[in-house]
Every structure is written in structure tokens, then in C-alpha cells.
Amino acid sequence: MQMQTTQKNFKVGMTHRTDMRILDTEEINFEIDMCIGCDRCMRACPVPLSNQVTIADLNRANVSDEITPIVARFTDECVMCGSCVPVCPVDNHRDLLMLSLKQRLGISWNGQVDLSKAMGHLPPGWDVSLVLLCLREQAIFSDARVVPDNYLLHFVATSDILTLSSGVELMREGEFGRDIFFILDGQCEVFSQGTDQRSLPLAVLRRGEYIGEQGMLTGQPRSVTVRSAQDRTVVLKVPEQVMQRLMEVVPAVQEFFVQLSSARAVEDMLSRLELFKDISTEDIHALATQATIQRFEREEQLFSEERKGQPVRETFHLMLDGFVRVARKTGRSEHPERIIAYRQRGDYFVGGLDMLGDRRAVTVTAITRVTVAEITRVQLKTLLIRYPAFKERIQERVQLYQEANTAAHSAVFEPFDPEQLQQALVNTSSAAEARSGLHALVSDGVVEGTEVLVIDLDKCIHCNECEEACERRHGQSRMNREGMVVGNMSIVTACRQCQDPVCMLCSRAGIARKPSGEVYITESCIGCGICAERCPYDNISIVSLTEDENEAQPASWQRFSRFFSKGFGKERGRKVLPMAQTPAEPGPLQPFVNDGLENLRKKIAIKCDLCAGYNNQACVQACPTGAAIRVNPVTFFGSTEDILSRKAR
Question: Which Pfam family, just one, is annotated for this protein (predicted)?
Fold first, then answer.
């Protein structure tokens, strides 16, 4: 398995800042000489510890060895959000100075480790040295030169050691979760639900093995159920943020996980495809291990019509994650490109949809983050020779594509079927409008969601009670009823609980996901705005909890989005907002209070979390006409295959 990526991480902990560079000594001195010591940058900094650090402390640390423990801790906690930059009256690059200081101090995991928490959860007779010995049995940690002991100690100190009795579940199929589990002792059984709803045993995991990496890497629901198979099974439960930190400081660990999990995903997907039926398990495994994995960000092209050469035209592309749009040039100036199809996880392209005879190329572009397995024609050649039926199936699909391509150039898309889409598009008046709605559902990310708030405009009386109920419950409205309109349905501007939430890459664990799918803001949030910056749909906003009216306005991506303009004027004022937790009994969430952090918090992110912790959803409950409803876009608008791959007449 080979690994390629179109965008590489720039530096440890800063995947959201790929354009940064280290200042040289002369530049550092110039920046510090320009500083007037006003401390505006520290007041704008969202890190709670910034209240105890001055800009003079940081300037001194940049040019001397006078680095106090609190400055070292603040430097490690800095998330490089850039809030300090726009408020500087002399246009200093405070973020670059912090980057230089981070580089000077090095990786925090090189320092002393506090193992008090881990020691309290060790099984009887265990000590730290035995935990390290068990971890070294994992192939990924076997080389101490790659993963030093001190890194593993930090790894253990920030994770949870669990001692499980027989039958206890580690994870459940269909639930969301990003923790990864390393088996230190004992055994675990792996199950999957069959078509008859019975659990089918798949494997037994033993000491030295792990499970859960697919959910950690992709954010997708768990594909299996895992239970302890012995009375004393010892497992290290590692949170996603801890694993991500290790993968950042030791890139070899990330490469190991990505390659191995991708090979498993490719093999599993190939074995499920009708195209590869009757091909032996050994041949599919060999094909999967030879595949090259490519990763694409939103709006990146996988390949285009202009790239008519090899090897794209002779490559099998298998979608592992995400959505793409497939387009072809029309030759017309007004509409130069026609979208002829959409594809998602499990779909594939054969030589750019033309490997075995069709010479016409297409342009394929990522709509969401996309992972693709590429298998060359040379790698497929053995199968084509060994399995004549496989070759016939590929040729048949090429023929079907050619027919669809001819139709796409000679007609328009079918309008939506009102019965299939229920009331979603009953007011659609033309094929052009239907086509626009079709593309909007995908391009605006509606089909990427798992829970979408929609309003039936035929029933809505525009009372705004849904927004006001949201504000009454949460202190700030987390939605705006005005959004994209498809037919007679308005797609409300609010978090859709995406299948692959790009906002969740938070180093502070300030945003998380419940097993049932709700993405919520945790008590660890400091309001840095990185999640809001990452959200492609402007569904996360940052609320200031301070009363300092002299504070400069935050950066554009830290303000309320245009959809939250109503609440922007009420942004200021010290208001404790409830964090999404899991109460013992359903009901209102309790405000977070822990070591005085709430008194230091300056900002916080807000987003719809489906009213986690309550018995109902305020917006839906408050609607007097029943116009507001929560839907799964796939079941409500129709399956992705039905809607997004609709052929032309």
C-alpha cells in the first residue's frame, strides 16, 4: 500500500495554518523592537492562561533563556488561531513569534510526565513498566527509536486504562466514536450484525492488537461491535486528540495507521462490489495492498478532461470516503460544464469512466474531503486475464456509461419525482429548477448531514418562534430559519451533524460527538474559532463572554456568520452558556464549573447540538404549525444514488 496526499501538514499542531513560516533572528528582533507593550494581543487571546501572561513575558522568552514555567505552559497551549494578529496597533506578527517560541521549546512530550492518573487505574499487580512492555508488543510501537519511552509515557498518562469483565462492550456497530483501543491483556470478540439482525462473529483480538482506528481517521460510524471475551481484559482507551498528537510528533505512526486502515477499507469495499464477485479473497487482498491512496480537499480535482494522458485514463478509482461531482464540458459559453453525476463512498471510476474503449474524458471534483484508492490497469491486468467474467462486467459498465453520456448531452435532467421526495419539491415548476435543487443538495452539503432542520414553507407562518425558542433555551440562538430553499422546503441554517465533521479536529477536545451522532461543544472549548473557520457551511459561531467594549473586533471567521446577524448585536455580556454533557436524567444541561476556568473563559463556540441533554428539540417543539421538522436527508429526499445519479431522459 502506497500513500500520497495532496496537502501535507506544515507543523506540529497547526494543520489549520499551512502558510506559516519560522522567523529568523533578525526578524524576531525587529518584531520585538516594534512592540509597544500594550497587551491587546493577550486580551484578544482565547487561551484562558493568557490572563496570567503579559506580552513582555513572551518577548523576553523569545530572545533569552528566561522562560518561566507559566510561559512554557502557555506556549504549549497556544493553538495558533491568529486572534492576536488583527488587534496589534503596530501590525506585529505575534503568531509567527509564538511559532518561533514553540520551536525553541520543542515538543512538550519530551518533558516530565505526570502518571498519577494512570497509576490509579492499573490492574492489581501491574506497574508502568509492564504497561510499556505490553505497548511495545504493538507493531506500531515496537521500535523505541521511532517512539521513545517518554512519548509512550505521555501517551499513557493522557489515556484511560480499562479493566473489563467478560461481555463488556468497547464499541457498538452504527454508533459514532473516535477513541482507539489497544489490547494490553486478554481477548476481545468482534461482531457484525447480519441481515437477520443476529450478531455474526468476525474475529478475536488478542494482546498486541488494536481496534477503532477507522472511526478515528474517518469519523464514520463504527462498522463492528467489540466486546471483552475474558473476565479480565486490560485495554488502553486512547482519545482521538491524544492519538492525533502522537501522529503529529511521530509521522511514522500516522503513516502506519493510514496505510493499514486504508488497505483494510479497500479490501472490504472491493469484496462487497458486485463488479468483483467470484474473485478469490487472496486476489482481492493482493489488489488492495497494491493500491495507492490519494486524499483530496474540497473543490480539488481528482482528474479533469484536460488530463487526457496516462495513467489517469487507465486507472481504477475507488471512492473510500466523501462525495464528488462528475462533469463534462458542453462547448457552450453560457453553461460550459454540465454535471452528469455525483458519486460517493463505494462508487468507482474505470479509467476516468473510460478505461476499456471510451476516449471521452470527464472532470471529477471533490465536494467534501475525499479519499480514493487508485489501482492501475497493470495491477488489474492479472484479474482481467484470470477472470473473463470480470472483464465482461467492466465492459458492460463502460457501455452503460456511454449510453448515459450520450443522453446527458442531448437532454435535460428529469425533474424530481414528487412521490419519492414526499413534499420536498412539490412546487418545482421546471426541469431547470429541479436540476438546480439537485445540485444544491450536494454542493451545499445537505446530503453530507445526518440530521437536517427543514421548514415546510407551505405551513410556515414566519412567526420566528423556532429561533426564539432556541435562544430561550441556550442563551443564544444557534440557528436561522432562513436558508437554502429547495422546492417548498427551506433548509434551515444550523449544524447538520455531518457524516465527516471537519470541524472536529480540535487539539483541546473542545468539540466532540456523542455515540448517537450529535456534534457538540464541550467544556474544554476556549472559543479560539478554529472549528468555525473549518466549518464550510458557516454553522459555528463564536460568542464573547467578556464585557470589554474596547476590545477590537474579532476576525471575520470568529464573528457570527451572516446567517446569525440577528444575534451579533447581543454577542457581548458575561453569559454562562450550558455545555453539552450527558446528565443522569434527561433535562436541561448544567453549566460547566471546574477549577475556576469559567471565570477565565473569554469566548466560546456555539452550534446546534440537537438540544443534547433535553427530551426534545426546542425549535421543533415550539413550531405552532408543525412546519419545522428534523430529517435525515438520505431518507427524506431520497437515497444519494436515487437523487444524485439521476440520469437524463
Answer: cNMP_binding
